[in-house]
Inverse folding.
């Protein structure tokens, strides 16, 4: 059973790496692969920038219509968020390599030891289901968006996937119309790939970190006095320091985006609810698009909050195990000093630039803020 779960973990990781590779976000040492990665990254960034410009143009052209502005702002924020993720992965590429060479490699090395697998893979199913749900919900957004223009064309009408306004004239149903449709689909596909891969990478590293913390807790609880006691205790302390460093690197890589997520999710959810409630004659596919969009953003916010909360909870349990370990009788002053230093640390908490802690209460704050923004918009309307 454990071997089967291990193979599923490989599938889980390979799926995330494949999505990152498609967007040019997965750093590789090979020179040939590097050129391909740069090309993919450049294409993704160009499509997202041009698309964001087209959405801005739509908002300006329809600035007299509040519903149109709200709808375009929601999409614009989503694509700006995607562009920010692309830039973060470019700027902090070395942090990704550090986590791969340290946290991920330690995890996979320990995974080879059969007796460690129950601790390392304890949360596997939850993380894997988050990844799958995240992937399917965001792809459903694109699918519902694509379906609307096709169905509209069947009935002799014209519709767009997203609220965009190109800087040139085109005839509905003409060649340019369908070229714009292809552009929308490609831009949306890159947006989905980047969003799901970046968010799931956070989940993958959180899974690695939580697994290693659980294993460390087990090792502290099972320390027994003997000739190898000092060496075992020292290994545990050194491993705890490595995990703390990995958590700090994760904060640098995902912290700013967590703050941006909290803000953008609240605004986007509010905007989509406003669009749903103010437009009485929305097509079925548009309604499905908006509802799926809301669910996907709620899931995204909950994922981040749950990942951060899981790290904190397991870290608290680990610190209790350190306190209860028989380190006081080791007789080695330096080692006892190291233990006291580790013990004096607060539990690992995923903090975002010192602004907020990523825990489950963050999700509740996002939902409450969305509702507050919605009622504010209704008042302004």
């Amino acid at each position: 059973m454990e071997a089967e779960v291990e193979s599923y973990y490989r599938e889980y990781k390979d799926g995330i790496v494949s999505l990152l590779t498609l967007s040019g976000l997965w750093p590789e040492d090979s020179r040939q692969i590097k050129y391909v990665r740069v090309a993919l990254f450049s294409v993704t960034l160009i499509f997202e920038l041009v698309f964001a410009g087209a959405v801005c143009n739509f908002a300006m052209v329809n600035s007299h219509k509040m519903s149109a502005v709200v709808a375009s702002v929601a999409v614009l924020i989503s694509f700006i968020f995607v562009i920010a993720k692309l830039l973060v992965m470019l700027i902090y590429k070395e942090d990704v390599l550090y986590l791969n060479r340290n946290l991920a490699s330690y995890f996979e090395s320990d995974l080879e030891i059969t007796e460690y697998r129950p601790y390392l893979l304890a949360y596997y199913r939850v993380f894997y289901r988050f990844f799958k749900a995240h992937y399917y919900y965001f792809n459903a957004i694109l699918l519902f968006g694509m379906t609307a223009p096709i169905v509209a064309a069947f009935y002799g009408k014209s519709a767009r996937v997203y609220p965009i306004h190109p800087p040139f004239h085109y005839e509905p149903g003409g060649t340019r119309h369908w070229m714009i449709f292809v552009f929308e689909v490609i831009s949306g596909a890159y947006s989905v790939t980047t969003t799901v891969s970046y968010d799931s990478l956070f989940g993958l590293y959180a899974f690695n970190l939580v697994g290693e913390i659980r294993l460390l807790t087990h090792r502290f609880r099972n320390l027994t006095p003997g000739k190898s006691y000092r060496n075992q205790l020292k290994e545990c302390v050194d491993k705890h320091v490595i995990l703390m460093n990995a958590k700090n690197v994760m904060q640098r890589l995902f912290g700013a985006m967590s703050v941006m997520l909290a803000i953008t999710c609240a605004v986007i959810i509010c905007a989509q609810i406003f669009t749903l409630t103010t437009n009485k004659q929305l097509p079925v596919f548009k309604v499905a698009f908006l509802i799926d969009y809301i669910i996907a953003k709620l899931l995204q916010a909950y994922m981040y909050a749950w990942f951060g909360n899981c790290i904190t909870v397991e870290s608290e349990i680990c610190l209790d195990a350190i306190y209860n370990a028989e380190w006081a009788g080791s007789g080695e002053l330096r080692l006892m000093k190291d233990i006291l230093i580790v013990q004096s640390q607060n539990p690992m908490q995923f903090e975002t630039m010192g602004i907020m802690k990523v825990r489950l209460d963050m999700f509740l704050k996002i939902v409450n803020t969305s509702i507050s923004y919605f009622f504010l918009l209704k008042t302004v309307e």
